[in-house]
Amino acid sequence: MPAPGAACRGRAPDSAPLRRLRSRRRAGRFPCPSQPASRRSRPFRTADFPTWRQEIATISSHDRINHEGCGAGERHTGRRNGQAYRVEVMRILAVDDDAIILELLAEIMKSAGYPAPELAHSGAEALAILGAADEPFDCFLLDIQMPEMDGIELCRRIRGLPQYGRAPILMLTAMAEKSYIDRAFAAGASDYITKPFDVIELVTRLRNAQTIVEERRRHLEHQLALMAAHPGHETKDRALLTEPIQIPDIDGMIEHLAFENYLLQLSRGRQFMSSLLAAKIANITEIFETCSPRTFRFLIADIAEAISDSLRGREFLMAYRGAGLFVVACDRRMADAVHADLKANLQLQLDEVLPLGDHGRPIPIDAVIGAPRAQGLFRTKGALAPMHEAIADVERRALELLSRRRAEATAAPSLLAGVPKRRKAALVHW
Predict the structure, then answer these.
(1) Using CA atoms, how far apart are residues 23 and 9, in angstroms rounded to an integer?
(2) Can you give the pTM of this predicted structure?
(3) Higher-pLDDT residue of 235, 223
(4) What are residue 135's phi and psi, to 5 degrees?
């Protein structure tokens, strides 16, 4: 019985694939899952496939997706933590100009229980596949460094297609610099994995993507059921208040899960040059109660655009987390300037987009800006701790503002005591 990791250290039999691999050292470097990854990883070899299968089988024994006899997109039964559940197999498109990487990805997905992905060797080929597809894809794996059209531009073009506005897009690349990470997420990436990648980590990220796909399908089915039950008019589902509404076509705006993955990726690369701050609409519940669902969605988009316009000329990413809460990430050296811009400009921008309530009168929008929280090298609470601290700070400020508003409203009747009725009505209207 060979020692653990022997397949990685031993010499693989000479073969055509291996000769191609030796002649193409640039294909990438991948750590052996049976050994700790070192800073100087060795090239991937086809002899490692059995070892990777063993590693994947270890984590997949509880929840392997059994897709035999099922095509992509078909429902079937799987098991997770010993419990049966219904899933739809993801249809995946992997794009890389290196055939060896594509071969590796196909083998990993097969070992993890996924159907074979569609493979493309360039951005142009990927777009051609999307244009000719009878059924939409559910998930994408994109390399960044490709000739003619890089993966970031391809990501941007995929996001521009209506059917792929929310599909998970995982960047799988050797580019670990913050500038590439920033550009990828700004273009619409959902997650970011750097080479050399850990196979088990890749499978975990794919499963996370599948969970997102399944949750969105269930949400769509729920919305369609509501529409069928109440044809001809909108129904106000209270979940809309707390739902992280998708807001497309606004500079710097990304989905809230992608925003968290962005922070996690910076932490993995030990890049702690960002600060987080939050903005909150304090009276969002009042606004929701007096608006139609359609008006509420438009209003959230208007608020996002107002934040983006307030920060025009700055580099930032932001996300909407539901319940009137926005989070913003920026360079920590510019955090004070970003905070000042929001405090100076946001309320002025919002005063121009006051929504009309059911009573036909404008509803004021009370925006609160929290203090910046910096990512730090010596933090021990996790990569998302600064974001949660920023959220807690702005939530506290919003509650304080609402308390002041209620106190003012309570005091108003006593201030009008003794004023003639006609004059009192005029003052209240004003």
Answers:
(1) 19
(2) 0.77
(3) 223
(4) -120, 140
Interatomic CA distance for residues 59 and 53, integer angstroms: 10
Q: Are 109 and 117 in contact (CB under 8 A)?
A: yes
**What one-letter code names the amino acid at 63?**
D
**What is the rounded distance in angstroms from the CA atom of residue 263 to the CA atom of residue 272?**
9
Q: Which two tokens stand for residue 352?
A: 């121009």
Burial category of 266 from C-beta neighbours within 10 Å (exposed 0-12, middle 13-18, buried 19 and up): buried
The residue ranking higher by pLDDT, 159 or 6, is: 159
DSSP type of residue 138:
S
Kindly state the tokens that stand for 149: 């059209």
Calpha distance 157→346 (Å, rounded): 31
Q: Provide the 3-class DSSP secondary structure of residue 139.
A: strand
Domains parsed from the chain with CATH numbers: 29-233 (3.40.50.2300), 237-430 (3.30.70.270)
Phi, psi of 99 (to 5 degrees): -65, -30
| Cα angle 180-271-340, degrees, rounded to a multiple of 5 | 90
Retrieve residue 390's tokens. Answer: 């920023």
Percentage of the chain modeled with pLDDT above 70? 71
What is the reported pLDDT for 318?
Answer: 98
List, as one string, the DSSP characters of 309-369: HHTTTS-EEEEEEETTEEEEEEEGGGHHHHHHHHHHHHHHHHTTSPPB-TTSSB----EEE
